[in-house]
Amino acid sequence: MTDLGSSDRLAAALAHLGSTIDARAKEGDASKSWTAKLLAKGPESCAEKVHEEGMELAEAVRRESDANVASEAADVLYHAFVALRSRGVSLDDVAAALEKRQGISGIDEKASR
């Protein structure tokens, strides 16, 4: 089994993705931007896309190539970011939630909810 690798490259890609989503949201032209189109439909529609993409990722993990798994994971991350934007939840909010979990067993963290 391969390690996850360096998080630096992913962090840079996610920072770029977040900036791009913010820019598309501010431009707001649903005729030119898939992001603006999704955001115009609201959080419910964004949630449906996250669900759909999550199911596609799960299927890829089960049966498809590593390249397809990576592609579907990228789709999930993109749609999750758009959904966050649709709700006004910042990446800083997500980072804070992750930081609270650092050093805590996933089993213990889940039991505390």
TrEMBL record:
Respond yes or no to whether keyword ATP-binding is given for this record: yes
Q: Which GO terms describe its molecular function?
A: ATP binding; phosphoribosyl-ATP diphosphatase activity
User: Which Pfam families does the record match to this protein?
Assistant: PRA-PH
- EC class: hydrolase
Question: What reaction does this catalyse?
Answer: 1-(5-phospho-beta-D-ribosyl)-ATP + H2O = 1-(5-phospho-beta-D-ribosyl)-5'-AMP + diphosphate + H(+)
Q: What GO terms describe the biological role, i.e. biological process, of this protein?
A: L-histidine biosynthetic process
EC number(s) from the headed UniProt entry: 3.6.1.31
Q: In which pathway does it act?
A: Amino-acid biosynthesis; L-histidine biosynthesis; L-histidine from 5-phospho-alpha-D-ribose 1-diphosphate: step 2/9
Q: Kindly indicate whether the keyword Amino-acid biosynthesis belongs to this entry.
A: yes
**What's in the keyword line of the UniProt record?**
Amino-acid biosynthesis, ATP-binding, Histidine biosynthesis, Hydrolase, Nucleotide-binding
The family assignment reads: Belongs to the PRA-PH family.
**Name the UniProt record assigns to this protein:** phosphoribosyl-ATP diphosphatase
